[in-house]
Each structure stands twice: as C-alpha cells, then as structure tokens.
Amino acid sequence: KKILTQMLSQIMKRKDVRRGIYVSGVIGMPGTMKEFSTSKKLGEQIARNSSLDIRIIRPSLIYGDREGVGEMVAIMKFTGLFCKKMKPITVDKLSLKIIEATLREK
Question: With a threshold of 0.90, does the pTM exceed it?
Fold first, then answer.
C-alpha cells in the first residue's frame, strides 16, 4: 500500500523537484490518534530515506481565526511553558516557515 508521501516523492523525482517540505506533527499522548501518529511517523521515515532534500516540520497545533479556537490555543500556550514541544502556530506563520525552509540551504 503506497502512502501519499511515497507518491509525492516519486512525482518530485519524475519532475526533477529537488527540495520539499513534509508537514508532520508533534505526536500526541501514547494510544491517542494511532492512525494519525502512525502515518506521520511513516511519512517522516519516507522523507528521511528519500534521496531528495525533504525538510520535516512538526507543528503541535495549527490554528486560524475560527471562532472558539482562542481557549484551546491559550491552554496549549500554557502547556508549552512546561512542554517545549507544545507551541501553537497560526496558519500564516506556518506558511512563512514553510517558505523559509524551502528557500534555505542546508
């Protein structure tokens, strides 16, 4: 069974695209969201083992300006004081980080 990361890697090779970004995620608590965390770990492994320059970004929580998100973000920011992996990021900031990572040489 091919996963999307494998297919994208193959397309990148065929189209001579040498650099890309894989948006993974901070893996949550053990036993939660097993399918999500398994697919992200596998995607990272494929990206690392590729002959291409695929950078991996691991946001913990991506959010926009949708109503009701503020409380969850506040909790995540508080949690981030004790767990450095928990750093919520806006969609706009993540987009800029993806562009920067794509343009930056290793």
Answer: no
Nearest to 73 by CA among 63, 81, 82, 83: 63
Q: What is the pLDDT of residues 29-85, one digit of tens each?
A: 555 667 778 888 888 999 999 889 999 998 887 888 877 777 777 777 777 777 777
Angle subtended at Cα 100 by Cα 8 and Cα 39, rounded to the nearest 5 degrees: 35
Backbone angles phi, psi at 11, to 5 degrees: -65, -40
Looking from the CA of 11 toward its CB, the CA atoms found within 13 Å total 8
Residue labelled with tokens 């920011």: 77
User: What residues contact 20, with CB distance under 8 A and at least 6 apart?
Assistant: 8, 12, 52, 53, 54, 55, 102
